[in-house]
Design brief:
Elements lengths: L3 H24 L2 H33 L15 H49 L2 H4 L31 H56 L9 E2 L5 E8 L5 E10 L2 E10 L2 H4 L6 E8 L3 E4 L1 E2 L3 E2 L3 E9 L5 E2 L4 E2 L10 H14 L2 E2 L7 E3 L8 E6 L14 E5 L8 E7 L1 E6 L2 E8 L2 E6 L3 E18 L4 E6 L1 H5 L9 E2 L5 E3 L2
Parallel strand pairs: 5-9, 5-20, 6-10, 6-21, 9-11, 12-14, 13-15, 14-16, 15-17, 16-18, 17-19, 18-20, 19-20, 20-21
Antiparallel strand pairs: 1-2, 2-3, 3-4, 4-22, 4-23, 7-8
Helix pairs in contact: 1-2, 1-3, 2-3
Length: 499
Amino acid sequence: MFDLSLFLPSVGLGLMLGLVCGAAPFVFHARTRFMILSATLGACRRELMKYALWKRDTLAAVEPEARPVPLGQFQKDQKTGEMLADLETTVNRLHVSLEEEAALVSAHRHDMRAVTGKIKVLRAHVGGQAFSTGVKKTPRIPEFVPATIGLRPSQIQRKHERGFVAVFALFMLMILSVLMFAFMRLATSEPVIATNQMHTAQARAAAESGIEQAIWSLNNSQPVPSGTVSMPTGESFTVTTSPGSQVNQVLVDAHGFASNAQQHITATLWRNPWISTPLLSPVHTTDGQVAGGSSVDSRTSQCGLRDGVWYTNSFEVGGPNAQVNTTPRPVASFDQIKFTAVDLGVLRAIAKVQGTYFSGSTVQNLIFNVGNPLPDHGVVFVDSLTGQVGGPSQDDAQVTVGAVANAAIFKGILVVLGSLTVQNIPVQGILYATSDLNLFATQGNASVVGAMVGHTSITVDTNAGGQVHVTHDCAQIDTLGQTVNGWMLQPATYQEVSG
């Protein structure tokens, strides 16, 4: 007959162990499973002891006359043996599970110690508050189960990192969106900027064309165009002129147009002042003399008869061979033909561009000779120490040119803010000194075809066997020795006006 009393405890115990061993790994953490398995193993042992005692008492009740059988004799019973074998297998399986869980718990503790150590190192590295204040605090261990203990990734819990990937992705998306928007704006605005710059450059060129048109009109005695002048390339300009502060200056105002761009430029035009106020003689000075075998001739085919000498104080023609074709003419002043500060500034700027400008302490005893030749053409400008006219005499330049026979011809204008002595050199152009001007022929001949201007005095003299000739020449005077032809842009006056 089937003994139900033996089956029910085994079924109940098996169901309980199956539930614990099967469901626990999916429900509890390793430490919780370890505690449950330990408690279950103890319960199984207690139930086994209770069942053995119950079986002994049951058999004693059925056979009262029988003596109580020792516990070891129950193992001979077949059903009892089968049940005990099942329980033993279950207990062994629990032991194995318990050992595995113990190993997992040990690994878990090892990982937790490693994480705790890393947290302490990181906090000490960044200087956390717990370390900087000297207060010992227990590091907060991240609540997660490392993957090293065999759990699936879905079982790893990182409460402090939940949503980090989403936030990082949104942040990167924002940055990329800003960059993409900036590149789109750049791609659309760059062509517009380039087009505006091109139109601005075209408008500026058109305005400069207006200035060039004004220069051409003035040099060719033509009226300056009024109104808007259209150009073949599509641009246009307007230009107007007005008198400057001097008779040899003209103010120019030009506007250039190209598409929707406009440029406004102002400038001052300048020309040789001796065109507006002509030099009416080849020699201009305060005091002077012509001596030795020297001559001054003001008769020219281009200009007609002019005065040979203009002077304001005294002038002497001495010696039997000295000649002036007309009587020297006294005048109240010849300031009108002196270079102004503006005129000297223009000539100084031209000389700097040509590389024929001299200044500094060396000008107080500057000698041009074979070893240091005078430039043979152009505007040569020798400045005073102060760069001003009429300063202390010790600041004036002292220049000597020549000193050897048969020197090369100088073509141009030589301006000295001080005293100038020219020896044995032919000149085609202008000699101009703000103090004394001397022209000597100590060996051979010396000549000036053009004009001489000395603010303080002029001396034209020769030595035995030498000759000096001064001849008036309108072409040399009007072009300052073929260096300045008509109207030109005055240096440092070009200006772009906004608006």
